[in-house]
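Open question from group meeting: does this chain pack into something compact, or does most of it stay loose? Before anyone orders reagents, we agreed to write out a predicted structure and look at it together. Recording both the input and the output here so the notebook holds the full record.
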Amino acid sequence: MTGLLGRQENAPLALEPTIEEFLAGCRLRGLSPHTLEWYYYALHPFARYAAARGEHTVDAVGEATVRAFLAEQSARVQPARVDHYRQAVDRFYKWLLEQGRVAANPAHTIRKVREPRRLLPAFNEAEVAALLAQPDTRRFLGLRDHVFMLTLLDTGLRLSEALGLRLDDVDLEGEALRVLGKGGKERLVGLSPALEPHLRRYLVRRAAALAGIGRADSPWLFPNQNGDQAASKGFQLRIREYGEAAGITRVRVSPHTFRHTFALWFVRNGGSPFHLQKILGHASLEMSRRYCELADVDFLERQRALSPLSRADLRVGVRRRLR
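Structure tokens returned:
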């Protein structure tokens, strides 16, 4: 029997076309462009590797092929990237299983690739101050960049989330932002009282600048020079250039480093990993726990200060007897 797409039902599924079908489904589900790109650059090399071994259909691929593919990649890329390949193959076959189109997932028993626990780059106060001093706030784009960096530091937003903010996502009275995160999930993120006056002044300048180029109708909170949504790569470049001008070489200067900085400072100032998970829009507590581990120096200091032995008057060294 021939199916709607002209393929014999129950016929073997060719690997490459089925991957394209998977990617099309991901687009329909509203996955982020970054996630789609990640799947594309992981699954197509996998399909080519399997084909070189004579495995051209989804059913032909076995666990040995997946392991051999990952082993080959491990000789060329970092462990984290190898695990991205593993996750992509695993998710692809889970999708096939959900549809009843394969009998088994060849990546199911392959464990997560271990990777070194590296310190996440974060700015110190002097570096943040130096960065914020670089934009020329007399010009609109300079002011925009200045307030944009303040917003990243204040909220921990991803770059794509911040650039996707619209005017109606900002609630200055309620001191909150409505953020569209990964997977199309909305969440509320608070605004600190310290950011609010900067945003108010910026909104006035923004309205005048956009009216001047005939784009008063632009919905974007941080638009580009034409009033359209700003591109991620452009902002990444501008922030890197500010870092070079500020002479910052200790850490990588990028929008994501602001996110790490927010998270580490939040934990060091007493924030809980549960609240951090909600603010950052993480699906699990794993990343929040890692930030807590990286802030362990601060926790050691608190332990020393709050230890029962240091807080209580136990008169160590004085002999006492219980009666």
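Observations to bring back to the group:
The chain has two domains: 15-98, 125-303.
Residues 1-8, 316-323 have pLDDT under 50 and may be disordered.
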